[in-house]
C-alpha cells in the first residue's frame, strides 16, 4: 500500500485492530518518508484445499452458489444467503488456519442452513453426506425434530456430530 500523500511504498504499522466485521484488520500506518498517517483495511487470506489437491481462495460467493440450489423454491432471500455466507466465513476463520479443507467449509454450512430453512438443509445434507437411503433422511429429520422439541430455543446443539 503506497502512501496516499506522497506515493512512498514504505510504511510502518502504528496500530492494528480487528474491524467490526470480525474478519478484516484495520491498520493505522505511518509513512516512512513524509510521516503522515493513513489507515488500511486488510483481510487475512484464507485458502480452501479441495479434494483434488487444488488450493483456491475462500469465496463467500462460492458458498452462496453451493447453497442456492438447495434453496430453490424455498423462502430464502439473497440477503439470507449473504448472511449465511458471512457466518460460514466467520466459523471457518475461528480455526485460525490459513488453509482449510473444503470438507470443513461444507460442515460450517450445515448448521446455519438448518436454522435458515429445514428443507434446504435436508437437500444440502443429502448431497453433502451422500445420503443413500430413506433411513438417512429419516435420521436427519429425526435430529431436526429432536432439536425442535427437546432443546429450548437459543441453546440448540449443533446437528453435525462429525
Ligand atoms: Zn508519505
TrEMBL record:
Its cofactor is Zn(2+). One of its GO terms (molecular function) is zinc ion binding. Keywords: ATP-binding, DNA-binding, Metal-binding, Nucleotide-binding, Repressor, Transcription, Transcription regulation, Zinc, Zinc-finger. Signal peptide: none annotated. The keyword ATP-binding applies. A zinc finger (unnamed) spans 3-34. Binds 1 zinc ion. PROSITE patterns: ATP_CONE. Residues 46-136 form the ATP-cone domain. NCBIfam families: transcriptional regulator NrdR. Negatively regulates transcription of bacterial ribonucleotide reductase nrd genes and operons by binding to NrdR-boxes. This is Transcriptional repressor NrdR.
